[in-house]
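Batch manifest, entry 17 of 40.
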Amino acid sequence: MADEIAIPLLPCASIDVIADFYEALGFRIVYRQTRPNPYVGLQREDLQLHFFGMPEFEPENSYGTCAVLVPDIKALYRAFADGLRVRYGRVPLSGIPRMTRPRARKNNEGVTGFSVIDPGGNWIRISALPSAEASPPVEAPKAAGRLASTMENAVVLADSHGDHRQAARILDSALRKVDAGEDPVVVVEALAYRAELAVTLEDPEAARAALARVDETELTVEQRERAAEALANAAELRAGLPG
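Output type: structure tokens
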């Protein structure tokens, strides 16, 4: 049977806080009730998420999650990021709520994805439709070198599993062993991601150290073009550090 619709029902401590957050992401309230049980339905174009309130609920202990597949993941990320900047003055990378950046996911066949961790502690795992990343589909290039492989593993640990400390540990180990033969673009990408992990872990000194190494890495014009996204991420991280 075609045209079925499935709508995730996720927990939260406050439907008002949840609604405020998702309205910043461009959602609108399509249903709301406070009695007999708090409940709010939110919709953004064809995407619907519904939430039920539990006053004693602790977001840090949430197991709530759902997968969302979208045709243009970069456009959606930009829209979400713009809304979060208006609401919070920045894209939150630590605590709850927060949002990760779009990256290829080794544990999802290389498909690009990012996660929104909302005020209820729910992980909204957003992935590009496989058919949207290339037409016709093209196999993603394999990571070349130890640092690139470590970076892939760190993304899985942190962005998919939420184990930011272990991701930071394995990246630190790999970054200590970088040799002259390593692609400087991969080095910059890994350092920018290490800085992002440091922000998530609320370790500004580690973030500054990683960003300093980004500045020290020599890049040709062609390499700078390939590293443009990582350099932009590094600049945004630097601007958001205290002091």
